[in-house]
Amino acid sequence: xxxxxxxxxxxxxxxxxxxxxxxxxxxxxxxxxxxxxxxxxxxxxxxxxxxxxxxxxxxxxxxxxxxxxxxxxxxxxxxxxxxxxxxxxxxxxxxxxxxxxxxxxxxxxxxxxxxxxxx
Length: 119
Fold this sequence. Notes:
The protein is mostly helical. It has one domain. It has helices spanning 2-29, 32-38, 42-67, 70-86, 91-118.
């Protein structure tokens, strides 16, 4: 299970970098057309969400069963809900919800990793 948490941590970091890279690039370089181009394809975000949700379904219920840590499960659940709701928002709110959700999932995976190294 530790490897699944490490994969989750890495994927959460990639998600955060992906979400912040475009707005930061636009701020630094000032290319407005870049944001229109990258946010046109929502299907990519939907596919990524499905992958995140599958990892969530595999990792966190089993972890709760083993560790009985409801806080980690709640943090992960709120993170997944935030990612899901971000799919239906406009650019700025979508970025905020996605980064917030990815950070929560990152924290939850890290807590799981720590709990499993203790046990």
